[in-house]
Structure formats: structure tokens, C-alpha cells
Specification:
alpha/beta, Lipoprotein, about 270 residues, about 35% helix, 5-stranded mixed sheet, 8 helices, 13 strands, lipoprotein, membrane
């Protein structure tokens, strides 16, 4: 009996170091949690270098690409991703109101002035009676696009309506056919429409040249709500790892990448 106990004691002594090593390994892997960031496809080339940089700091990032604006916030609320970087503050606020969610900004990324593009005319003054103009159909960017067309002198909208739709147009002297389509389809609509109001990420994906811009949004105090952001759920707003990700984005290197790939379409906002 004593001999068996002695053998057991030696076996236990041999196993203890192995158990400690195994325990440490488990702790290490749990600390290196992968952070999933939802982005639009055109931003992948901006985030890839940041992803590589953060990996050296022990922060693993998985980029999750989306094709329309309705997906990233739903995925964030459902905890399918941890952060997203695609929207401006105004879009986030309207989403929270509509869906009773608690998404918050943890850092600024870029200003992306909305633009009116055309392959058929060279200026706003060349737009003729009855021409078609397409705009994004999500409520926030639809209203923003109509305000852009108003600034261009093409229409007037009801000033009492916060998020106007084509139904809220109060003056349309040229009787323009203003059609709301999925934001991702606005570049394609240029083959038929005289003009299209296109968000920058989709303009970049479609490789639309700046020379096809016939009007763009002014950058002033009124455009502050349209500054793009990195967002997360309110419960995670103080996450230290997420703050490191914001810091890694807001660098001179990112400014150079934005200039390289977007050619002035987007402007750093930090």
C-alpha cells in the first residue's frame, strides 16, 4: 500500500508542471480575443495595414465586410461583430431611435462629403426638364441627398421635415424624376439616369472619377453630424482594446492611405 502511494505521489509531481503549462496556455489564448470589425468593402484596403500593425501588438482583428447599410448595426447589436466603421453620427442616432439600440461612437474616422455624379452632363445647369436623378433609399442618406439637391438649386424640400423623402419636395421646377434606389446601386444607375447622388464608398468601389462630380456637399458646421465614426455597443465603450484600435486608425499612415485610395473623396476627421 505504501509503495503504491509512493508511486502515485511521484506521478502527481510529474503531472503538476504539465497542468500549470496547460492552464497558462488557456489564459493566453483567452486574452488574445479576436475583435470583429464590420466595414464596407471599399474600406478593406484602409483597414488591412491597421490589422497587420495591431497583430504585432497582440490584438487580432477580423474584418467583416458588408454590402449595404442595414447590416452592420444589426450585426453589432446582435454581438456578431464587436465594432463597425461605416456610418456617420447622424445615421447612428437615427438607427438607435428606430431600433431602440444603444450604439455609441468611440472615435472619428473621416468626413465623406456627399456628391452628385453624372456621365451625361458636365454641370448642374445642364440638367434638363424631366431628367432622372437617383438617390440612396435608406432614410438618413435619402434625406441628406435631397438636401444636397436643394443646395444645388434643383429642388426645395419642406424645412419642417427632419428626414425628407421625395414626397416632401415642395418645389421641382424642372419636374425631375427623383428615384430612390439601394445605395449600392446608385453608381450603376448612372447608365440610365442623368445624375446620381452617391456615397463615397460606393463611388470608390465603382471607380468613379472626380471629373464626373457636378456638385458636392459643403464642409461646414452643418456637416458635423455627417462625420464618420468607429462605433460599438454602449456597454463596451470603455473597452481598452477598442480604444487601442481607434488610436491605431487615427494616424498619419492612415491619412496617407485615404489620400492614396480615395483621391480626396474622404478627408480625415480626427
Amino acid at each position: 500500500m505504501k509503495k503504491s502511494f509512493k508511486h502515485f505521489s511521484w506521478l502527481l509531481l510529474l503531472l503538476i508542471p504539465l497542468l500549470i503549462v496547460a492552464g497558462c496556455g488557456k489564459s493566453s489564448s483567452s486574452s488574445n480575443k479576436t475583435v470583429k470589425i464590420g466595414i464596407m468593402g471599399s474600406d478593406e484596403k484602409i483597414w488591412k495595414p491597421i490589422q497587420s500593425k495591431l497583430k504585432k501588438q497582440g490584438i487580432n482583428i477580423k474584418l467583416v465586410t458588408f454590402t449595404d447599410y442595414n447590416q452592420p448595426n444589426a450585426a453589432l447589436t446582435n454581438h456578431e461583430i464587436d465594432l463597425n466603421s461605416f456610418q456617420h453620427t447622424y445615421f447612428m442616432d437615427q438607427w438607435n431611435k428606430a431600433h431602440k439600440s444603444n450604439i455609441v461612437s468611440i472615435g472619428k474616422t473621416v468626413r465623406a462629403p456627399l456628391r452628385l455624379y453624372s456621365k451625361k452632363v458636365k454641370s448642374v445647369s445642364a440638367i434638363k426638364k424631366g431628367d432622372q436623378i437617383t438617390i440612396p433609399n435608406d432614410s438618413t442618406n435619402e434625406g441628406r441627398a435631397l438636401h444636397l439637391l436643394q443646395s444645388a438649386g434643383l429642388i426645395k424640400v419642406d424645412s419642417k421635415v427632419e428626414l425628407p423623402t421625395p414626397k416632401n419636395i415642395t418645389e421641382n421646377k424642372l419636374k425631375l424624376k427623383i428615384t430612390a434606389v439601394d445605395a449600392a446601386q446608385t453608381p450603376r444607375s448612372l447608365s440610365d439616369a442623368t445624375g446620381a447622388v452617391i456615397n463615397n464608398e460606393f463611388a470608390a468601389e465603382a471607380k468613379l472619377p472626380n471629373k464626373e462630380t457636378i456638385f458636392k456637399e459643403k464642409i461646414n458646421k452643418a456637416s458635423i453630424p455627417y462625420i464618420n465614426i468607429i462605433a460599438t455597443n454602449k456597454s463596451d465603450k470603455n473597452n481598452k482594446t477598442y480604444k487601442k484600435i481607434v488610436k491605431a486608425y487615427q494616424t498619419e499612415a492612415t491619412k496617407k492611405l485615404l489620400k492614396k485610395y480615395y483621391h480626396g473623396l474622404t478627408i480625415p476627421a480626427w
